[in-house]
Amino acid sequence: MPQESNAMSPLSSVCSSVGPSDECLWARSQRGDGEARAELFSRHRSLAYRVAYRLLGNEADALDAVQDGFVKALVNLESFRGKSTFKTWLLRVVTNAALDLGRQRGRRESLPVEHVVGDDLDAGTPSAWHNPAERLERADLRLLLDKALAALPEAQRQTFVLHAEAELSYRDTADVLGISIGTVMSRLYYARQKLRGFLGIRLES
Fold this sequence. Notes:
- By secondary structure, this protein is mainly alpha-helical.
- The protein has a domain at 21-109: RNA polymerase sigma factor, region 2, helix turn helix motif (Rna Polymerase Sigma Factor, Chain: A).
- The protein has helices spanning 10-16, 22-30, 34-42, 45-56, 59-75, 86-105, 113-118, 126-130, 132-150, 154-165, 170-177, 181-204.
- The radius of gyration is 20 Å and the shape is globular.
- The chain starts with 9 loop residues before the first helix and ends with a helix.
- The relative contact order is 0.10.
């Protein structure tokens, strides 16, 4: 009778670490753990919203895109096979939902500065909450970046947001947009050049 191995499986090792990884939470959710499934999506909700907002430029549309993307991801959760990180897979689903919504509704006007000041970007930096000047400076920079991104051609903006904000690889960005990796690299090059020019002029003025 073969002896059982004492070595821990990779999944067991991941799940035994402090603070369960996405992969551990996914494995637990596959076994019917609702809390693990909720935590899995909750930990990426803020990033998913930021990506959707930068793609769509409107709070209501971004929230709709995140909701639609999360529903699709939940329905198709079993299709995640670990070929990429769970975050990458989830953001790919959300960005596809945002792009679909953008094609249906178009990109509407960006939100006023009050939204930028009030979002959760600084939730992890307590000093910003106690320093109004620092928080206003962050808000000004965030608004400036929103304007810079809005000034990009749509194709370049989408590619830049997916790669820089969603942290998708060249390959994942290409897959989401249905273009070649070479086109991704070209769009990113020109987007960065235009952003540097836009931000440099605005910061100097």
